[in-house]
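Can't paste images in this forum, so I'm doing it all in text. The chain is below; anyone willing to post the predicted structure tokens underneath?
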Amino acid sequence: MLVQSLFTDNFVNDFFNGAFDRTPSMFHTSGSSLMSADVKEYKDHYELALELPGYEKENVTASLKDGYLTVEAKREEKVDSEENVGRYIRRERYVGTLTRSFYVGNDVHIEDIKAKFQNGVLDIEIPKVDYKPEIETARSITID
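Text version of the structure:
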């Protein structure tokens, strides 16, 4: 699975998401094609805006684990009352769980991330942190 990064172009991810998938987009289980995202860069932070029209705030969660920010949104099917049972002729609205992940780095801490959900858009502010790569000392490789 390819995961998008906030810090790189997502051309490869976008290419492979649809290149070999032969199912219509409304049946994608990950929901990345149904959860549009905009990423804006500022001097000291990034802003991520995810569109989730028709979702309730209570059914949207965001988590941070191993440097990956994951957003999950759930929508359940409404059950008609027995007296108002109808038959769908066409169904295009997605019902189920959508999940989308972005790599934000291991140096970002959950308490520094701010999020708000308003009018079907989840806005997330992620601080820029100085990347501190682990410096590996040179080691000899034994050649047999």
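The CA atoms of residues 68 and 103 lie 4 Å apart. The longest strand covers residues 68-75.
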